[in-house]
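Sat 14:20. Reprocessing the chain from the morning session after the first attempt stalled halfway. Input below, unchanged.
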Amino acid sequence: MIARWLDSDFVYSLLRTPTALISLIICLVLAACALFAPWIAPTDPFDMSSIDLMNGFTPPGVANEFTGEQFFLGSDDQGRDLYSAILYGLRVSLFVGFASVILAMTLGVTLGLLAGYLGGWVDAVIMRIADIQMTFPSILVAMLIYGVARGILPPNARADMAITVLILSIGLSEWVSFARTVRGTTIVEKQKEYITASRLIGLSHLNIMARHILPNVINPILVIGTITLALAIIAEATLSFLGVGAPPTEPSLGTLIRVGQDFLFSGQWWIIFFPAVTLLVLALSFNLLGDWLRDFYNPRLS
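Finished this time. Tokens:
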């Protein structure tokens, strides 16, 4: 099976598209760094017992004048190793991004299948809700959902539920693209003869949607999911930068950028520079990978 996959058109095209191949390698490396951060990071940046305030504002590769310690990417205002903080921040950003996309994909695919297959008032209601949501920028929808959710939660539970609320807010703001694409594909597929044959032999509507129509919409879902992952990571960073995202106890790349922005004009450029570059490379890699998937599955668009 592995040999057949390695000999497939997918792998052939990937190996001959340097941009997509490099993007995939970068995504895998960053994901591995995030997954194994507790073993790769020199220190735990959020263990207060391992932090020395005298190490604060140490430039990259320069020995601290008080303690003599050196940090690969420098240290922040609290004396935390910035390299370790970025690795742990990657964990939060990628976790929120993947979880948000899974939520958006599940909701969007389900509603898209129902709208395209059933039609009628079900299609009208779902698509009108999607049209209304599309009139607002996704980040504003996410901020609205985040604010409402935090307002419902009791004050003592807000910190513990911050990541969950962040995932819900981003996921519920990104489902529309999945729903519209799946609906269009479902409308085309349900007119084909194999769907008519499935109805004639007595298969239920749920069975037809799950076993016959859904496999035919997997490819566009993968394309949209990859691109939406980049958007979700940027949305999480934006919300955290604005102070309404990840809590200080579980900082993401956006939180690190927000902290670094306070010291940008005082000369400590590295505190914002390295987290910002990491976020840029991460989002750009997923975006380029998504563009290649779109061109591969629909070469007429390339």
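The chain has one domain: 82-301.
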